[in-house]
Amino acid sequence: MTSAVKTHKFRHIFLRTGMTIVLGGVTLASRAAIATAAIEPERPSPSGMLRVSNRSEHPIRLALRLKVAKLQNSKYSDKYGNKYGETLAQPSYETPAHWDFFAGEGSDRGLLVGLPNRSLNLTKGDIVVAFAQDGSQRYWGPFIVGEVSGPTWNETTQEWKLILEN
């Protein structure tokens, strides 16, 4: 019989006396100066094309904002001069792109969407939203890729899949 072993990385959290931090559902109250908490190893976010299935009875417009992560060069330090890694700047986004679908278009296998001047790869943090163009005021999303339930990652095809239904 084999058993799965779960490995954890540990991060030291420096707390001032009287501070409380909640990390992954575990409350760290501090009388001590250092607390150690187990954190899950960070998995790389999948990146791939987007396949869309419009299974609704509405003609829709799908809009996409691709995230551009910029890394700040500045590091922050505590009052003792200890430096703590690089920080991410506020996310910025590329110019929006959109596609129009007829009612039921791509309902069986879905349609791959692309950009005219380069390939399209969705990654964690990109924003996808769809809305009906028939005046019904129906909309889907916003979906933040890798953070909410849709679109879903298909490991076999290495694609993100978004299914829009009534």
List keywords for this structure.
four-stranded antiparallel sheet, globular, 0% helix, disordered N terminus, single chain, four-stranded mixed sheet, mainly beta, 166 residues, 2 domains
Across the major sheet, the strand order is 12-5-16-15
Helix content: under 10%
- Whole-number average pLDDT? 75
User: Which spans have pLDDT < 50 for at least 5 consecutive residues?
Assistant: 1-17, 30-39
Question: What is the CA-atom radius of gyration, in angstroms?
Answer: 22 Å
Structural class: mainly beta
Topology of helices and strands:
Blueprint: E1 9-14, E2 20-23, E3 26-29, E4 34-39, E5 49-54, E6 60-65, E7 67-68, E8 71-77, E9 83-88, E10 92-93, E11 97-101, E12 111-113, E13 127-132, E14 139-144, E15 152-154, E16 159-164
